[in-house]
Amino acid sequence: MVGGGQGAYIGNIHRLASRLDGQWQLVAGAFDVDPQRGRDFAIAQGLDAARSYGSYQDLIAGEAGRDDRVDAVAICTPNFTHYPIAKALIEAGFDVICEKPLTATLEDAVALEKLARESGRFVGVTYTYSGYPMVHEARVRVARGELGAVRTVQVEYPLEWMSTAIEQSGNAQAAWRTDPKKNGRGGSIGDIGTHAYHLAGFVTGLKLESLTADLATFVGGRALDDNAHVMMRYQGGARGLLWSSQVAIGNSNGVRLRVFGEKGSLQWFQEQPNELVFTPLDGRVQTIKRGADDLSEDAKARTRTPPGHPEGYLEAFANLYAGFAEAIRARQEGREPGPLGQNVPLAYDGLKGVAFVEAVVDSHEASDQPWITPVAV
Ligand code: NAD
Description:
Number of strands: 12
CATH topology of the domain at 131-307: Dihydrodipicolinate Reductase, domain 2
CATH superfamily of the domain at 131-307: Dihydrodipicolinate Reductase, domain 2
CATH class of the domain at 131-307: Alpha Beta
Distance between the termini: 55 Å
CATH architecture of the domain at 131-307: 2-Layer Sandwich
Strand content: 15-25%
Order of helices and strands: EHHHEHEHEHEHHHEEEEEEEHHH
Domain Gfo/Idh/MocA-like oxidoreductase N-terminal: 11-127
Bound molecules: nicotinamide-adenine-dinucleotide
GO molecular function, one term: nucleotide binding
Organism: Paracoccus lichenicola
Domain GFO/IDH/MocA-like oxidoreductase: 136-266
Protein name: Gfo/Idh/MocA family oxidoreductase
């Protein structure tokens, strides 16, 4: 692992989730931007001192010479570092599991996706919400045609944690997320809008044709958007509406997806992840529960506990890790991956997310964006 050291947000989730199925072992790390703190953290995690590195460059040099070198490296650092770290790892022959957004700039995302493709290295991207069994169930049901043609998609990712200027009072996570050089051009839209955009496309299979966006920065002194509304036109005519917000008081992690087709609709809410609500035209509202016998093989493959015993965030993240392990093994063995290794987010999905952010900010900044005041206001 690179990043995810003492006090970091997502690194420990990776460590917990990767261990859940016994497919991965954490054996080496450069966990911190501060070399000594990184080495101390590694030793405290129980790693061999020889594999407790001070920097990702040292990790690459140290691991490259070992017979038991690491199979893959998870990158859990701020956005602007993803590209240089991933590039160096891929060029040294390592597979990579990278946090989202794939990179901080479109130029870097294009280059990284190309490098992944041409090198043949595995690059998985941790779009967490595509790990949930009921999200897979939704994807299968849309693909089977249970909703008919999709007409409209509503997806939202509201959070409350940046409702005040916490970046100015020492919050490490907020500090780099509000710095355009470290985060990229899109504030809320880059940090969480990318999750929502991926989730909507993952479930519906729809491909974006064009968008128009309105960004806002509500907290004074903040350099990036903390609220975004995006209207989307998908190929084939479906429409979408995406909302990301870091200032939506009352929302801890309110990811919500609603898909409306010509024959029915589906709704999924990440704070109740074991349920999917399906409403057929002229039918009753149905709550489909995780663990039921008649769910798709895709959902079953990602289910661990019996019905009524809740699963959640860690299991969804673990499904990504199990999927990455299966995809890497299948590649090594020259076979098609089993169900878990299919539909895992890859470098191209990461590139699509960064391209989406770029288009959203471009749209917002475009001087000819139409805003029309009604005659009566
Ligand atoms: P953070 O600031 O909490 O932690 C970053 C860690 O990286 C720190 O330990 C820091 O010392 C280390 N670091 C920085 N530069 C480094 C370098 N060059 N070498 C080694 N270590 C370095 O950040 P975070 O909130 O955990 O976010 C990290 C990444 O994870 C971001 O890209 C973010 O968008 C993503 N993230 C994803 C999810 C998800 O749901 N998938 C959730 C949160 C964050």
